[in-house]
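Issue: ligand-bound run for guanosine-5'-diphosphate - logging full I/O for the record.

Environment: standard queue, default settings, no custom constraints.

Inputs:
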Amino acid sequence: MVLAQLGGSISRALQQMSNATVIDEKVLNECLNEISRALLQSDVQFKLVRDMQTNIKKIVNLDDLAAGHNKRKIIQQIGVDKVLGQTVLLYWEGVSPNGVAIFNELCKILDPGKPSFTPKKGKTSVIMFVGLQGCGKTTSCTKYAYYHQKKGWKPALVCADTFRAGAFDQLKQNATKAKIPFYGSYMESDPATIAVEGVERFKKENCDLIIVDTSGRHKQEAALFEEMRQVSEATKPDLVIFVMDSSIGQAAFDQAQAFKKSVSVGAVIVTKMDGHAKGGGALSAVAATKSPVIFIGTGEHMDEFEVFDAKPFVSRLLG
Ligand code: GDP
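Outputs:
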């Protein structure tokens, strides 16, 4: 991994530390502050960054720092034992390995240790999408369906959003454009009823990927979570995907956790990665839901959707 790929602030901070003749508390603090600033600017949760900083300081042997010698030993002691709930060890000497260590460890944070449920072609799976209003849920449902359709699946879309006027029309329009069968109702006001009707219909039609789009709210509300619980209870989804806007910033952890408490979120999709936001909230969402990011949205169009790859994501985060 070349330094340039690791982006600006963090690699610069590490380089400064490596170049210092003596690593004392001041040099260490400057380095940690620089790394923390970069992670905060990328929307990684404040508490997690602070914990990381505290943990590193605890691990470093201050006596060695005071003596101001044995640089290599000190550097190797610098570890992070807990970052976002994951055990992490960092040590470095020289510029490039430093960056690689941090880079790899951030990638590991994005890996909750177990893959999400993976639907199988030809076998019916019900996938429920949840998220706040405007996060890109309906768009991502269609993208997810379209992505699989291109690979020979038989997807179908169910609109269980009775809260937002126009939600069904939007899904209908997207589905029609992609030639994907859809189900919804202008009359029925109970989302769980519509969801069940849609799922049953598409099961009969032997669709192998039945995608249930649910409603959102502008903020986390008890009514929304109760509704999600009911839809989930009624449709028994194989996978619940939490959709988050890459720009939600520091709110990501609480938001993801709130959804996880009402339904069993098993995967994350991060949208609007084509914008300015770096999407550091994704690390929080992974930590809060213990679920991996599976796709990212990179534009408004149907095919602007990519399988998540931690490496370019982390490069961007550190940049
Ligand atoms: P929902 O309320 O969560 O269902 O959100 P929508 O799917 O209606 O999306 C809200 C807005 O975000 C729409 O204007 C979408 O076109 C837009 N959007 C969704 N995903 C992306 C994305 O990955 N990139 C960009 N630039 N816009 C997106």
